[in-house]
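Continuing the series of single-chain predictions for the mutant panel. This is the parent chain; the variants come on the following pages.
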Amino acid sequence: MDEYSPRARRRSALLTWQHIASLPPSLPVVYCGGFNTQKESTTGRFLLGRSREHGVVGDMRDAWFNARVRKNVSLVRTYHGFKGDKQGTLEYLKLILRALCLCWDRQTQDLHIDWILF
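Parent structure:
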């Protein structure tokens, strides 16, 4: 989501949620990425179903709190404070991106995933 504008992040979250809500309910959805915001921000609260945006409420759940096993606990909360090993992180991100059938751009050395929502 937008790095600088909270308003743009809220709008992006709303548009993304509207698309997710339009999908068949039986279709599993995983939404992950660099959200550039805190979970307690307006955008985070909206996505997690704790606030409204233009009369709409999101309904995502944070995969971290629902995980049976939590690895790399020290890597939690990457928003502006990422301290993980870059090589290990890049390998992990490549795996996630391949699994999501996305293209890997070797020029991008700065990717991280803030949250994984479902």
